[in-house]
Amino acid sequence: MRIGQGFDVHRFADPAEGRPLVLMGCAVPHDRGLAGHSDADVMLHALMDALLGAAGLGDIGQHFPDTDPAYKGADSARLLERVMADLGQRGWRVVNADVCLIGERPKLAPHREAMRRRIAPILGLAPEDLNVKATTTEKLGFTGRGEGLAAQAVVLIDRG
Ligand SMILES: [Zn+2]
């Protein structure tokens, strides 16, 4: 068995840019989206880094460089499928994953089950083996000021 952790941060885009907020592959209604080269799905980016870390495969910056126009506006759920294919080729399967959003708003609770149902199948998991949660930073720091969102993820993988 191997464990991996991931961490990611994206700043909020100017609301005038009209970017959607995408978290765990789901569009979350909010007055602004996150800035980034891809869809800026900060939770999936942390999750992919955790998976790559557990498998000893580096990080998403190596696999999907943000200088590559191929990944402009990329759907991070598609990138997650590619990460899972890489792990699968090496015989790894996911045991469980725990993903935490860090920020004041939006509230995650109304979307939590949809996120689990959306992403668990990509990981080859039942929804109950993919935990999705959120915390604030008590209005402290950049997440507390609403300048952006952060996410952390931990995964366990094994190969029989
Ligand atoms: Zn990211």
UniProtKB/TrEMBL annotation:
Pfam families: YgbB. The keyword Lyase applies. Transmembrane segments: none annotated. Pathway: Isoprenoid biosynthesis; isopentenyl diphosphate biosynthesis via DXP pathway; isopentenyl diphosphate from 1-deoxy-D-xylulose 5-phosphate: step 4/6. Gene3D superfamilies: 2-C-methyl-D-erythritol 2,4-cyclodiphosphate synthase. It catalyses: 4-CDP-2-C-methyl-D-erythritol 2-phosphate = 2-C-methyl-D-erythritol 2,4-cyclic diphosphate + CMP. Homotrimer. PANTHER family: 2-C-METHYL-D-ERYTHRITOL 2,4-CYCLODIPHOSPHATE SYNTHASE, CHLOROPLASTIC. This is 2-C-methyl-D-erythritol 2,4-cyclodiphosphate synthase.
